[in-house]
Amino acid sequence: MSLYAIGDLHLHYATDRCPQSQRKDRAWRNHEEKFRKNCQAMLTPEDVLVLAGDHSWGKNLEECEPDFQYIRELPGRKILTRGNHDMFWDVKKTQALNERFAGELTFLQGGFAAYGEYALAATKGYTFEGPFYLDRRGRIVGWDEKEEEHAKKLVERETGRLRVSLEAARDAGFRKIVIFLHYPPTNILEEESVFTRLAEEFGAEQVIYAHSHGESRFHDSIQGEFHGVNYRLVSGDFLKWKPVKILD
Ligand SMILES: [Fe+2]
Ligand SMILES: [Fe+2]
Predict the structure, then answer these.
(1) What's the 99 CA to ligand 2 centre distance in angstroms?
(2) Nearest 5°: phi and psi at 191?
(3) Of the candidates 196, 242, 231, 235, the residue with the CA atom closest to the CA atom of residue 212
(4) How far, in Å, are 49, 148, 207 from residue 52 at the CA level?
(5) 88 φ, ψ to 5°?
(6) Model confidence pLDDT, tens digit, residues 101-121
(7) Which end of the chain, N or C, is less packed with Cβ atoms under 10 Å?
(8) Do residues 120 and 180 make contact, with C-beta atoms less than 8 angstroms apart?
């Protein structure tokens, strides 16, 4: 049994909401088919596949249904975490989603799932992407204070949720932890963040994140070892639609 991860499938079997930028990008051409074939070649039915947010462009369950059907048919046990584009998934609806898809898909948000001796803790996270505006050379040319206030609130809410998950895992006796975020743990101006400090405080071995699409965004945040934690970007186009092995 192995644990794999990938994020940002951005499926759109039942909606035309998929933006032109995705339709025209070579990295996304036929990506559903590429990913399905890679999963079939790499995963066994005993494996676990974590999909780290941004599953579908559908805005409600009805519009997402063919996308869920595609995910259901992938090999292994599927655990879905929440991304910023998952309009079908209000946090309060997590339990209802798990009841509706019982035995088929697991929706993990603000809690943890056990994987052997590991606890998998998941929440969407948040990074300040908009309060500052950069020129082409990465120099700050503007700052939106209102947006900064809003972003601070979202970061606070998400770190609160992550702390609750990590404490629940610790209270249940788990000492080994992998954290799944959708947003990168830091923005392009930060070296560390409340999320990296939480990962260190709870001794997480790995922090897995997605959301960064396109070559220009792949290095927005930490990759590799930082303060004893291993950070890995798993957005689908970055991985060329091959799920990455997280744990044996
Ligand atoms: Fe995305
Ligand atoms: Fe995203």
Answers:
(1) 25
(2) -95, -30
(3) 235
(4) 9, 25, 11
(5) -75, -10
(6) 999 999 999 889 999 999 999
(7) C
(8) yes
